């Protein structure tokens, strides 16, 4: 079965430092991959998505992610974090085996804290 | 335009009560999804509608959970005889068409005492 693994439960980085959040997926075909962010009490906001084409994807708020098929990874990066980036981050894959649906499979999330 | 809205935002229920959670998708969006997010976990798929048709309900945890979308717009998730394990945030999402980007509402936080 398809799955998404986010190995880091909680990460703390200093404001202004670079960030990389890891994501690995298990999926037979080329997946549709997403990163969502969830702030406390807020819904999920889409940061970026990969469907096909260029494997380096740019998103909102200065985030980017790189799809690496050989490593089954889709890691999220940001060169310099801001205090407002503190939130929960979810990697997700769409299950395309369902011809009439696009059920999203989410990872368990990585909580990002920012050190002043 | 307006995003996905959900009501109520918070709901406290006594064990055994029935609850109804409402989702207003983005206008014109054909697809509507419900997810359940337990504390400290990622959201998990519950059910999916295309217009008024419920095409996938494989994620509903028991027959106490029921969802409907009678006119292909607003959807209601109903939980009968609530149990403590039903405590979670219930997220609704909609997309313009199948396999397109899903936009999420703020969720309804359900606490069953």
The shape of chain B is globular
* Mean model confidence by pLDDT of chain B: 94
Give the class of chain A from helix and strand content and strand pairing: mainly beta
Interface with most residues: A-B, 25 and 28 residues
What structural category arises from helix and sheet content of chain B? mainly beta
Number of strands of chain B: 11
Strand-residue proportion of chain B: over 45%
Summarize the structure.
Chain A has 116 residues and is mainly beta.
Give an overview of the whole structure:
The complex is a heterodimer of chains A (116) and B (113). Chain A has 116 residues and is mainly beta. Chain A is 0% helix and 51% strand. Chain A has strands at residues 3-5, 10-14, 19-21, 24-26, 32-38, 44-50, 56-58, 64-68, 73-78, 87-94, 104-106, 110-115. In chain A, the strands form 3 sheets. In chain A, strands 2, 5, 6, 10, 11 and 12 form a 6-stranded mixed β-sheet that branches. Chain A has a 4-stranded antiparallel β-sheet with strand order 3-9-8-7, with no helix packed on it. The mean pLDDT of chain A is 90. Chain B contains no helices and 11 strands. Chain B has strands at residues 5-7, 10-13, 19-24, 31-37, 44-50, 53-56, 65-68, 75-79, 88-95, 103-104, 108-112. In chain B, a hairpin with a 2-residue loop joins strand 5 (44-50) and strand 6. The radius of gyration of chain B is 13 Å and the shape is globular. Chains A and B meet through strand 6, strand 10 and strand 11 of A and strand 4, strand 5, strand 9 and strand 10 of B.
What is the strand and helix layout of this fold?
The complex is a heterodimer of chains A (116) and B (113).
Chain A: E1 3-5, E2 10-14, E3 19-21, E4 24-26, E5 32-38, E6 44-50, E7 56-58, E8 64-68, E9 73-78, E10 87-94, E11 104-106, E12 110-115
Chain B: E1 5-7, E2 10-13, E3 19-24, E4 31-37, E5 44-50, E6 53-56, E7 65-68, E8 75-79, E9 88-95, E10 103-104, E11 108-112
Parallel strand pairs in B: 2-11
Antiparallel strand pairs in B: 1-3, 3-8, 4-5, 4-9, 5-6, 7-8, 9-10, 9-11
